[in-house]
Amino acid sequence: MTNPLTLTLPELAERWHTPAPQALSRLLQQALPLYFYFDGLVFNFGDKWLRAGGDAHDVQDLEAQQARLSTAEIDLQRQNLHQLGLLKLTQWEDALSPEALQQLRAEVGRLNADVERLSARLKDRAGQRQRQVRNGLLRAAPRTLQEIVRQGRAPFPQFAFLPGPSAGVDGTLVALEDGFPLMNSLGEADLVVAMGDVLAAESR
């Protein structure tokens, strides 16, 4: 009979005829990796641009530029209509000189370019984020596993590792976002171990 590729921790506990906490402790003592299933966005830990909040500065800059552009466009429109004799300026407005009017036109052009650039940058970021979807197993961090050992459950992790090339080598540290379905915690029943690691543990 062909062995499965993975076992859940409860399945392993049944195989070893031992309670799940003891099976988990035995795996940790041998530094064998445990995994959990994740369906959501996964980002390299150091990628501050794509991770949540990475766009905060650009969003604030875009909003400020859009607000200034709206005001500048209204001012320019009113000055143009005034020059054509189609609008009388209020007492709080001064007619601009040709030089000042040219500067205002240049500012509107610059602001339009900035708004277009920032909008395109944020749109590209949104597209890149959606390409970071992972549907599969991630390696649980030691801190998460230690919490499960102590408490039976751990808050659903914000960080984990991509599966590494071997039991002794961690993969890339990644940040997790927008998991589906939303899970608040991980428990023993959510943990998975590779059958190859099970056989290695048994051989010891």
Description:
- It contains six helices and eight strands.
- By secondary structure, the protein is an alpha+beta fold.
- It folds into two domains: 6-48 and 132-203, no CATH class; 56-130.
- The strands form two sheets. Strands 1, 2, 3, 5, 6 and 8 form a six-stranded antiparallel sheet that branches. Strands 4-7 form a two-stranded antiparallel ribbon.
- Helix 1 packs across helix 2 and helix 3 (56-83) packs antiparallel against helix 4 (98-130).
- The chain is rod-shaped and about 95 Å long.
- The two termini are 22 Å apart.
- The mean pLDDT is 92.
Annotation keywords:
6-stranded antiparallel sheet; two-stranded antiparallel sheet; 204 residues; alpha+beta; rod-shaped; 6 helices; single chain
Rg result: 29 Å
Strand content: 15-25%
Compressed to H and E, one letter per element, the order equals EHHEHHEHEEEEEH
Instruction: Specify the biggest β-sheet.
Output: 6 strands, antiparallel
**Alpha-beta classification:** alpha+beta
Q: What number is the mean pLDDT? A: 92
Number of strands: 8
What's the shape? rod-shaped
Unreliable spans are none
The N- and C-terminal alpha carbons lie at a distance of 22 Å
Number of helices, counting only DSSP H or I runs of 4 residues or more: 6
Q: Could you say how many structural domains there are in total?
A: 2
Helix content: 40-55%
